[in-house]
Amino acid sequence: MLKRYLFLKKQDQIKKENLHEKKKIFGTSIKRSSDYAQALMELGALICKPVSPNCKNCPLVKKCKSFKNKNFDLVKFKKKDKETFYKLNIYKKNNHYLLIKNNKFNFLKNLNIFPMEEVNNPKNFDKDLNLKMSNMSMNIKIEFKNKYNLNKNNYWIDPTKLQNYTLPTFTKKIVKFLESHK
């Protein structure tokens, strides 16, 4: 929707960093930010659809540059998959797994993940798991550890009650992998 509204057609215009900055044109809602974000997503999904946008029902049509140009094609650029390597540290106590709040990596920022480290220039990397996320192919080596210093950004989860936690799919997939490979 943002690409059409601002008539963004070049690769440098639609980079994630630029889109994040440009989306401020729609404003924000401090009191109901999640409802506001949901409304924008629904506008994009129901009105400004990828194919055959329904411009006559769009509340933004008067200022929409794609409508003015009568060009509704969305430009997509294929991202090249980046292969990455990580060592995942698993701490287990009383059948619970330790998670940390991610403030280290740019992906899944501020979400709960297993403690992990990126491995640069791996030689003979013996992966246990491969997960795809966005344009990353993540090769993961799992190592079980014993001692860990807890802080306020760490907590233990019960894998049998996974549905009770708000976790990224990435973390859930790892828990399911661990539980199926006991």
Structure description:
The chain has 182 residues and is of the alpha+beta class. The protein folds into 2 domains: 68 residues, Helix-hairpin-Helix base-excision DNA repair enzymes (C-terminal) (Endonuclease Iii, domain 2); 99 residues, Nucleoside Triphosphate Pyrophosphohydrolase (Alpha-Beta Complex), CATH 3.90.79. Helices cover 24% and strands 23% of the residues. It contains 5 helices and 7 strands; from the N terminus they run H-H-H-H-E-E-E-E-E-E-E-H. Strands 1, 2, 3, 4, 5, 6 and 7 form a 7-stranded mixed sheet that branches. The model has no long low-confidence stretch (mean pLDDT 86).
| SSE topology string | HHHHEEEEEEEH
The oligomerization state is: single chain
Helix-and-strand structural type: alpha+beta
| Number of domain modules | 2
In CATH, the homologous superfamily of the largest domain goes by the name Nucleoside Triphosphate Pyrophosphohydrolase
Helix content: 10-25%
CATH structural class of the largest domain? Alpha Beta
What spatial form do the alpha-carbon principal axes imply?
Answer: elongated
Strand content: 15-25%
Per CATH, the architecture of the largest domain is Alpha-Beta Complex
Q: Residue ranges: pLDDT <50 for 5 or more in a row?
A: none
Over the alpha carbons, how many angstroms does the gyration radius reach?
Answer: 21 Å
Q: How many β-strand stretches?
A: 7
The main sheet comes to: 7 strands, mixed
Q: Supply the number of helical segments.
A: 5
Terminal CA distance = 45 Å
Which whole number gives the mean pLDDT?
A: 86
